[in-house]
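Q: Hi! First time doing this. I have a protein sequence and I read that you can turn it into a structure. Is that right? Here it is:
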Amino acid sequence: MDWQGWFALSLTGVALLLMSVGRFGPHLVMLGVLIVLSASGIISADQALAGFSNSGLITVVAMFVVAAGIHHSGGVDLVVHHLLRSPRTVRSAQARIAFPVALLSGFLNNTPVVATMIPAVHAWSRKIGIAPSKLMIPLSYSAILGGTLTLIGTSTNLVVNGQYQQLTGEGGFSIFSITAVGLPVAVIGLAVMLLVLPRALPDRKDQQKFGSMREFTLEVAVAFDGPLVGKSVGEAGLRELERLYLVEIERDGSVVTAVPSEDAFEAVTGWSLLAIPRLFPICCESTVLSLRYTMMSQA
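A: Yes, that's right. Below is the predicted 3D structure, encoded as structure tokens:
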């Protein structure tokens, strides 16, 4: 093996060491490796830039956009409130996570699904009184198994499909080409997971009683004769609040999670804001304030 091979191998070892330390982001490490290999002449400019036009990479990026849209439109909240609800046992909680996450991972790519669900599952674990350590591994495993259902379910499938197209010149696999193999594997894997993990996983409760105090939810009731009655969200100025975000409106027992700017307030309508604790002024005696803490991350 010539010096280029040894240099590339050494650079790979350095990259793995830097990523394992965790001080530098993986994207920065890999970009640095790409620059060094390109500057040293080991790879050409065309080879260095070829990965950015890879169809698998573009598909994964698109799935992140779709997952972000589901998260910000309230889709994750719908899953938590209507599918997860309030299980009584650890196994039931893990099952309620496993099947929806596996199904979503098959069509949205497992990486963005996990990234989107982690905060919601963490907050849900506090609500139902089950340690997050009992739920995070099932979340990850369910996404991995769900990724085997379709071609777009995981980045590995997309990379292999791209390499197959490049080497053979053929059209590649269809989205359901691997389902005949992936579906039995996913079903068996989920069954074993629900059989073993409820007792195998440690029961580690959050160390802090209130978790992270950097983010919580403030609920405010709109008074009958208040200045907000009849105004839309945009007219009330609730879209331009500094470090505050209107997340939902409750009206006549129904909750609107994706609040449009033109939605008008009615008397005794409840609305919620995500906020930072020190930024709350105590406003006036006629306003009814209640703080609903939603500690979504550890401080």
